[in-house]
Amino acid sequence: MSQRVTLAKALNMGLRRAMEDDDKVLLMGEDVGKLGGVFRITDGLQKDFGEDRVIDSPLAESGIVGTAVGLAMRGYRPVVEIQFDGFVYPAYDQIVCQVAKIHYRSRGRVKMPMVIRIPYGGGIGAVEHHSESPEAQFAHTPGLKVVTCSNPVDGYWMIQQAIACDDPVVFLEPKRQYHADKADLDDQATPDPLFTSRIVRPGTDATLISYGPMVKTAMKAAEAAATEGRSLEVVDLRTLSPLDMTPVLDSVRRTGRAVVTHEAHVNLGMGAEVAARITEECFYSLEAPVLRVGGFDTPYPASRIEEDFLPDLDRVLDAVDRSFDF
Amino acid sequence: MAQQSGDGFGPDLADVFGPAHSDGGPELVQLLTPEGERVHHPEFDLDFSAEELRGFYRDMVLTRRLDVEATALQRHGELGIWAQLLGQEAAQIGAGRALRPQDHVFPTYREHGVAWCRGIDPLQLLGLFRGVDHGSWDPEERHFGLYTIVIGAQCLHAVGYAMGMQRDGDVGTGDPDRDAAVLAHFGDGASSQGDVNESFIFAASYNAPVVFFCQNNQWAISEPIERQSRIPLYQRALGFGFPGIRVDGNDVLATYAVTRAALQRARDGQGPTFVEAYTYRMGAHTTTDDPTRYRLSDDVERWKLRDPIARVEVYLKRNGLVDEAFLEAVADEADQLGATLREGCKALPDPAPLSMFDHVYAEMTEELAAQRDGYAAYRETFEGGVA
Ligand SMILES: Cc1ncc(C[n+]2csc(CCOP(=O)(O)OP(=O)(O)O)c2C)c(N)n1
Questions:
Q1: Would the pTM of this model clear 0.80, i.e. be above it?
Q2: How do residues B188-217 score in pLDDT, each as one tens digit?
C-alpha cells in the first residue's frame, strides 16, 4: 500500500512494524511513552504495545544505554531514543566503551543488537546542544555501525533494518527533515540493503557526496547547477560506518570531480575520510582535489547566525566552481 | 511492581516513608499557608519585616511578568523557545534572596527568578532563548553562572567551585562578609542523572560548602516524579551523608528561611545540604511542550489554589501591610518591565556572522583564523546583489 508520509511518520510506522514483527523489540527513552517523544516519533506506540515495551525511562542517558546493554544481553532488541544530539554525551562512555566492544571482547558470544536513535543536526532555531552533528565521533569507534536517513522512504526501511541488525547501530535522524517533505511510501517494496550508499541524482560533470540533512541541499545545488548547464551527480551515503564507497568511487571515476558536504565541523569530519578514500582509489581519474564543505570548526553558534554556519546551496556551488577552476 | 514487604528484606516502603502525599506531607516546612495564614515552625521560623514581605511580593510579581512576557514573545516568534517558571516564583525568590553577594549560583535554564535576585538584566536571559548568544552576562560579576541546558552538569561544577572556596579560606572564618557558599539548582528529573549523584558524593566526601536546591515541580517534561524516585527526594540526601529538607516551594517565607539556614551552615563549614522545594510547574515545560497529552487539568486547578503570589498578597492585605498605592506601584512596574522586554527583545541585535569565530580558543589558531578570513572573503563576493 502506498501512502504519502513525512519522515517523522515514516519512522513511527517503521518502529511499529518492527515491534509487531518481533516482540523482543523494546523502545526506551525520555518521554517516549505518553508524550510520544518530544518529536512525536514514538507517538501512539505505548498505547498499543504497553508500558513494558515502550518504556519511559528516568532522566539519565548513561542509565538508558547501560540498561539497554543488559537487556540486549538478555536477548531483547532495545531501541533507545536520545532526546537531542547534544544529550548523548552522558551516555558516550557506555556507547563507546561498552556497547561497541562487548561483542569483540566476548569473542562473539554476546551480541549487542541495539539501536541508538539520535535526532541530529541544526537549522531549527534551537538553543545550544540541540543542533549538533556528532556522527564522526561514533563512526570513529570500531564496533559501532552508524547510519543516517535523508528521506521518509529510507527512514521507514532503514529503522527496521537497523533493529534487525545484530550489531549496535547509531541511527541518526535529521531533525530538520522530520516534517519538511512528504514522500510516497510503498510498504511492500523491496528496500536497498542497510549498509549501502546510493546515487540519488545522476550527473556527468562532478559528484556531490552528502548524507542526512544535507542531501536536500545537495539536490538543490544540483538543480541550480543544471540551470547553468552543469550536470552534478548526487550520492546519499546513508551509511557512515561501514562506508559504502562503491557508488562514490564509480561516480568520481566518471565525473573526475568530487565535493563532500555535511553539517558537521570539517576538521576530522566524515568528509576527510571520504576525500582520503577517493584520493587513494581514484587519484588518476581526478581533475581536481576532493573539496569539503561543512560547518566551521567552531562550536555550533547562536541560532540567529546558524545560517552562516550551515553549508548552504551557495557554499556548495562555490566549491563546485573551485573544483572546475583547477 | 509489588512493593517488598514481610520478605525478610525489610519493611514496606510505605511504613518507612509514610503514605504518598500530594501536598508534600507533614514534613513540609511551611511558614505561610495557601490561605495566607502565618504559621510557625520549630526550627526555621524567622521574623519578617513588612518591608521584606513587600519586597518578596514585588520580586514575585515582576518575575511572573517577565515569564508571561517572554512566553508571549515566543508566541510572536521573537524567541525560539522559552522555559516557563509559572508557579515556581516563591521557590526561586526565596532561594535567591537568601544569598549573600559573595555566594555563587549555578543555575539550570529556568532560574529566571534567581537571576532577577542577582541583578541580571532580564533582557540578557531573553538573548539565549532568542538565539543571539549563549548567555551574555559575566558569571563572576554577579556570582550567577551561565544557564546550563545539559541536565545536571552544573551540580558538579557547583561542588568544584565550592571546593575552591574552601581552599581559598572563604569558609568558616566567622566573617559574614567573607564566608561564602554555593547554591546549585536542578530539577526532580535531574536527580536521576549520574552527574547529580556524583556531585552528592563529592560534596559529602569533601564537606563542600554547597546547597543543592531541587525544585521538585513534579514533572520532567512528560514524566512524573514517580518515574525518577520511589521515595521523597529529600530523603535521598541521608544516603549520601548530609541532611535533606523538604520545604513548601510555593511559600516564599519558608523557602527563604530554609535556604538561608542551609547556606549559613555551608558558609560555617558544616558541609552540604539538600533542599527539596516542593512545588508545581503550572505552565508547560517549555513553549514547545503540550502538557495536555500527559497531565490532568484537575491537578493544575488544585495547584492554582496554592499560588505562591496570592498567599503573600492575602497576608499583606489582611495585616494592613500594604495599601492600594503600593499594589498599584508594583503593577505599574510590572507593566513597565513588560514594555521594556517587548521593545528590548526585538531590538536585540543579531550577532555579526564572523563573531562565531570569536572565543573558540583563548589563543586563536592559525587554522581557524584562515577559516574566518576565507568566509569573510566569500561573503564579500555576494556584495552587489547576488545574496
Ligand atoms: C542530559 C539531558 N538530557 C535530556 C535533556 C532534555 N530535557 C530538557 S529539560 C528536561 C526535563 C527536565 O526535568 P527536571 O530536571 O525535572 O527539570 P524541570 O525542567 O522540570 O525544571 C529534559 C529531559 C537535557 N536538556 N539534558
A1: yes
A2: 999 999 999 999 999 999 999 999 999 999
User: What ipTM was reported for this prediction?
Assistant: 0.93
For chain A, helix, strand, coil in percent to 5 are 40, 20, 40
Q: Starting at the earlier edge strand, list the strands of the sheet with A206-210.
A: A198-201, A232-236, A206-210, A258-265, A291-295
End-to-end CA, chain A: 49
Which residue is closest to A89 within chain B, CA to CA? B150
Strands of the A54-56 sheet, one edge to the other: A54-56, A25-29, A77-81, A115-120, A169-174, A145-148, A239-241
Q: Are A264 and A172 in contact (CB under 8 A)?
A: no
3-state secondary structure of A147: strand
d(CA B218, CA A192): 46
Q: For B239-268, give one letter per residue: b (16+ CB within 10 A) or e.
A: ebebebbbbbbbbbbbbbbbbbbbbbbbbe
A56, exposed or middle or buried, with CB in 10 Å at 0-12, 13-18, 19+? buried
Please write the tens of the pLDDT for every residue from B128-159. Answer: 999 999 999 999 999 999 999 999 999 999 99
What residues in A contact B133, CB-CB < 8 Å? 302
CA distances from residue B245 to A88, B206, B209, B233 in whole angstroms, order as listed = 32, 20, 16, 9
In whole angstroms, give the CA distance from residue B97 to residue A63. 36
Classify strands A115-120 and A145-148 as parallel, antiparallel or unpaired: unpaired
Residue entry with cell 521507514: A156
Task: Tell me how far CA of residue A300 lies from CA of A296, B49, B342, B386, in angstroms.
Answer: 8, 48, 27, 26
* Distance (Å, whole) CA A127 – CA B129: 6
A57, A90, A302: residue with CB nearest B351: A302
| CA distance linking residue B181 with residue B196, whole number of Å | 18
Q: Please give the Cα distance from A71 to A91 (Å, whole number).
A: 16
If 0-12 CB within 10 Å is exposed, 13-18 middle and 19+ buried, where does residue B279 land?
buried
Residue among A31, A297, A308 minimizing CB distance to B223: A31
CB A149, CB A215: distance < 8 Å: no
**Alpha-carbon distance B203 to B210, whole Å?**
7
CA B120 / ligand 1 centre spacing (Å): 23
B288, A56: Cβ pair inside 8 Å? Answer: no
Chunked in runs of 10, what are the mean pLDDT values of chain A (326 residues)? 95 98 98 97 98 98 98 98 98 98 97 98 97 98 98 98 98 98 97 98 98 98 97 98 98 98 98 98 98 98 98 97 96
Give the three-class secondary structure for A148. strand
Which amino acids bring their CB within 6 angstroms of ligand 1? A 30, 59, 61, 83, 87, 90; B 110, 149-151, 187-190, 215, 217, 219-221, 281, 285
Please say whether the beta carbons of B28 and B246 come within 8 A: yes
Q: How far apart are CA B195 and CA A233, in angstroms?
A: 47
Question: Please, which contacts does B160-166 make with residues 24 or more away whose CB atoms are closer than 8 Å?
Answer: B160/B202, B161/B104, B161/B106, B162/B203, B162/B208, B162/B209, B162/B210, B162/B266, B163/B202, B163/B206, B163/B208, B165/B104, B165/B209, B166/B206, B166/B207, B166/B208, B166/B209
